[in-house]
Amino acid sequence: MADIIKVVWLCSMHNSCLNEYFKKDTKIPAAWMSEFLELAKPLNNIELHVVTPNLYNNKDADVCIDNVSYHLFKFHSGLLSNRNALVELALRGARNIESKVKDIVNAIKPDIVHLFGAENLYYSVGIKKLIGVYPTLVTYQGFVQWAPVPTNIIKRYVYRKRIESEDYIYRNCKNVSFFSIEEYIKNEFNRMYPNHNLYRLDFPISRPVLDATIVEKKYDVVFWARVTKNKGIEDLIYAIGLLVKYKPNIRALIIGGGADSYLMEIKELVKTLKIGDNIVFAGFQKTKEDVFNLAAQSKVYCLPTYFDAVPSSICEAMFLKIPVVSYPVGGIPFLNQGNTCICLAENRNIYSLADCINNILDDNELANDLVYKAYDRICQLCDNDKIAVQMDTAYNDILGTWN
C-alpha cells in the first residue's frame, strides 16, 4: 500500500476558500462538509481531491487551495437555475454527470473514492460508473426514501428518481459509514442492505462556547435549519398557532434560509393563522456563532424533521444547553437511550408537538433536567478529535481488503 493515499471526495462543497476564489459571498449550506475538510487537512498521509458540482458559476474548473485539489464541474445545462437543476436532472437523466465525474476521477487515478450522501442527483450519481473500478466508501446522510411523498407531481417525479439512485448506490457500494449515534439506522440499514461493511465516521459538530442557560431570553421557541417542508417548519408554525390560544405572547424565532418561493408560502401561512406578531424570521446567518448567539436567546429548540439521520443542529442545541423537541425519526431516538434527554413528540402530530413545547415552557425543573442530561449525553457521544483517525482507519481497512 502506498505511503500516501490518494482520496477523492465526491460531495457538494462550499467553503470560505472557494467563496474567496470565485469572489462570491455564497451562503454555505451543509457546513459539516467544510468542517470535515478542515479535520482532514492535517492528515499528512492523504492527498485530497474534492470533486463537486460548481454551484458558483456552473462551469468546469480546477483549483488548488491549501494543498487541496478542487475539481468543480458543470452539472446542468444552464436552462434552469441551480436551485431547479434537480428537475432537469430527473427529467433528462444524469448520465452526463456520471460520465463527467468518471473522466475527472480517472484522470486523478485515486486509491479510493468517498461519496458523502447517496441521495443527491446532482453529484451522487457520479459514483455509479466508478463502482468496481475503485474502492468506494459512502457516508450515510439520511434516506430520501423515508421522506414523505410530495403532493406536487413534478416534485414527486424528482423524489422517485432520487430514491432510484439512492437505492442503486447502496445496493452496489459495499462500504458505508455512519455517525456513532446512528445505531438504530445501522440496524435498519443492515435489514435493507445486508452484507455490507459498516464503519464509524462521526460528523463534525460545532461545539458552542456559549452557555444558553445564562443568556437573557427574548424568544420562547427557536428553529434553526434550512427552511423546508421536510425539516418540519410547517408543523412548528401550526403548533405555534395552537399555543397562541393559551400563550398569546409566545414568540418563535426562525433561523435559516430557503427557496424564496417556499419562504413566501410559509409567511403566507403565518399570515393566514394570524400569528405574524408571534414569529420572527431571522433568515440565513453567515456563521455558526451568529446562529448560536441568536438561538441562545430562546427557551426551547424545536426541529420537527420528517426524516433525518441525527441532525447536527440537535447536537449543537444539546451542547448549547437549550432543551430540544423533535420527532422520533431516523437516529434521533437513540439520543434518549438510557436516559430521556430530549422531548420527542408523536410523529407528524402538531398537537403532540405543541404539548411538548408547552410542557417545557411551563416547567423549569423539566427544562433544566433535559438540558443537563442532554449536555452530558452529547459530550459522551461527540468528539471531533476522533474523526480524522476514524477516516484514516476506514480508508486503510477498505484498501487492505480491495481485490
Helix-strand blueprint:
Blueprint: E1 5-10, H1 16-22, H2 31-40, E2 46-53, E3 61-65, E4 68-73, H3 85-92, H4 95-108, E5 112-116, E6 136-139, H5 153-172, E7 175-178, H6 183-192, E8 197-200, E9 219-224, H7 233-243, E10 252-255, H8 260-272, E11 279-283, H9 288-295, E12 298-303, H10 312-320, E13 324-326, E14 343-344, H11 350-362, H12 364-381, H13 387-401
Parallel strand pairs: 1-2, 1-5, 2-4, 5-6, 6-7, 7-8, 9-10, 9-12, 10-11, 12-13, 13-14
Antiparallel strand pairs: 3-4
In short:
With 403 residues, this protein is α/β, with parallel strands linked by helices. It is 39% helix and 17% strand. The chain has 13 helices and 14 strands.
Report on this model:
This is Glycosyl transferase family 1 domain-containing protein. It comes from Bacteroides salyersiae CL02T12C01. Residues 214-376 form the Glycosyl transferase family domain. One of its GO terms (molecular function) is glycosyltransferase activity. The protein is α/β, with parallel strands linked by helices and 403 residues long. The chain folds into 2 domains: 5-204 and 383-401, Rossmann fold, CATH 3.40.50; 219-381, 3-Layer(aba) Sandwich (Rossmann fold). It has helices spanning 16-22, 31-40, 85-92, 95-108, 153-172, 183-192, 233-243, 260-272, 288-295, 312-320, 350-362, 364-381, 387-401, and strands at 5-10, 46-53, 61-65, 68-73, 112-116, 136-139, 175-178, 197-200, 219-224, 252-255, 279-283, 298-303, 324-326, 343-344. Strand 7, helix 6 (183-192) and strand 8 form a beta-alpha-beta unit. The longest helix is centred in the middle third of the chain and has 20 residues, at 153-172.
